[in-house]
Amino acid sequence: MNIALIGLGMVAGTHVTAIKSSEHGLILRGVFGRDPAKTARFAAEHATHAYGSVMEIAYDAVIDFVILATPPDARREIVETLIAAGKPILMEKPIERGLNAATKIVEICEAACVPLGVVFQHRAREASAELKSAIDAGRLGDICTLDLRVPWWREQSYYDAPGRGTYGRDGGGVMISQAIHTLDLAIWLLGRISSVQAMMRRTSLHALEAEDWAGALFELRSGAFGSLLATTAAYPGSAEAITIQGSKGSAHLEAGVLTLRDLDGLVETFGAQGATGGGADPMAFTHEWHQSVIEDFAYALRANRSPLATARSALHAHAVIDAMHSASKSGHRTEVLL
After folding, report:
1. pLDDT(108) > 80
2. Which of 47, 238, 271 is nearest to 153 (CA)?
3. Which residues are CB-neighbours of 93 under 8 A, at least 6 positions away?
4. Sign (positive/negative) of CA torsion 314, 10, 57, 55?
5. Three-state DSSP class for 163?
6. Which of 130, 174, 328, 144 is nearest to 248 (CA)?
7. For the residues 212-228, what does the mean pLDDT come to?
8. Cα-flanking dihedrals φ and ψ of residue 122, to 5°?
9. Residue 304 burial (CB < 10 Å; 0-12/13-18/19+)?
10. Nearest to residue 224, comparing CAs of 125, 299, 147?
C-alpha cells in the first residue's frame, strides 16, 4: 500500500524506518512538511517524493492512506482536506489539544466514512497484548487496584523548541504529550475511568507554559481504583510502568516486560526489555512498535475492519486529561465526561 507522510518533526524518521522495514508491501510514496526546503531535503534523504501541498496528496490517486504527524494544533484543516478526497488517516497522538476539538475531528471522519486510526503503539507491544489476554481470560480475577507511573526526564532544550509544552500548540504538558500513551494503554486493558482527583504542576526544573508533573487518584467504571504519577522532571528518567492487583494475582508491565504473579505462587514473564524514550533522548525507542501499528492499519483497510486503535476509542484518554485539568484547578473530584 502506498503511504504519504505529513509532518516532518521528531517522530517522522521513526515512521519512515517503520515503513521501509516492513515486509508487507508498504511503500512511502512521498512526504510533506510546512517548510518546502526541509521537505525537499527530507525527501531526498529518504529517496521519496516531496509533495508541495496537502491538496496534492489528497488528490494523488496512488496514495492509499496518509500518516499525519503534525503538532495537534495543525490537524483540523488537513483532516478536512484529506477526507474530502476520501483518504484514510493514521494519526499520531494526541488527536487534538482537548476533548472537544478531538471529538470534532473524529465526528467529521465518521460522517464521511473515512477510516481514522491513532498511533498508540504501546497497544501493539507483545507484553501489552499478553496482559490484555490474561485480563480478559480472568487470570487476575476481579481487578482491585491500578498504579500508573511515567517517571521521565527531558532537558530544558526539549521545551525550548517553539510551541512545545504550550496549551496553544500541544494542549498541555506531560499528560497530553507523554503520559497519554500509558493512560490509553490502561484504559484499553481495563476500561473507562469514571472520576479523578488531580494536581498538575510545573516544577522549577523546567521553563514551560504547561505542567511537567501530574498526579491523580481515579476510579474506574468497573469499581477498581488507582493512582497515576507522570513527569518529565525525574532525572535521569526511567521506563513507564503499570501495576495491576487482582483477586487472583498481580501484573507488572515495565519497559516491554510483563510479569504475572498468581496468588498460588506461579510467576511468568513475557516480552523483551527495551528503551522507551523516558530519558533525555525522546527518540530512544525501537521503530518496531510503530511498524506494527502501521501494518495493522494497512491490514484493517484491506479487510474493512477497525484498526488496533480507533480514533473513537482514543477519545477517552482525552476526556480523562481534560478532567484532570479541571480537578487540578478546582481542587475537587471531577467526573470524566465520556
Report:
1. yes
2. 238
3. 118, 119, 120, 180, 181, 184, 314
4. positive
5. coil
6. 144
7. 98
8. -65, -25
9. exposed
10. 147
How high is the pLDDT of residue 272? 86
Q: Is 196 exposed, middle or buried (0-12, 13-18, 19+ CB in 10 A)?
A: buried
- Rounded to an integer, the average pLDDT of 253-279 is 91
The C-alpha cell of 109 is what?
471522519
**What distance in Å separates the CA atoms of residue 89 and residue 79, rounded to the nearest whole number?**
8
Residue type, 73: D
Average pLDDT estimate for 50-61: 98
Sheet strands side by side (includes 89-92): 49-50, 27-32, 2-6, 65-68, 89-92, 116-119
Determine the residue type at 111.
A
| Range list of β-strands (E), the chain | 2-6, 27-32, 49-50, 65-68, 89-92, 116-119, 143-151, 193-201, 213-220, 225-231, 241-246, 249-254, 257-262, 267-271, 334-335
d(CA 57, CA 78): 10
| Whole-number Å distance between alpha carbons of 211 and 35 | 29
> Which pTM was predicted?
0.96
Mean pLDDT of 63-77: 97
* Mean pLDDT (whole number) for 132-141: 98
State how far the alpha carbon of 177 is from the alpha carbons of 2, 79, 212, in Å: 28, 20, 10
| Model pLDDT, residue 18 | 97
Q: Taking Cα atoms as reference points, which of 80, 93, 284 lies closest to residue 170? A: 93
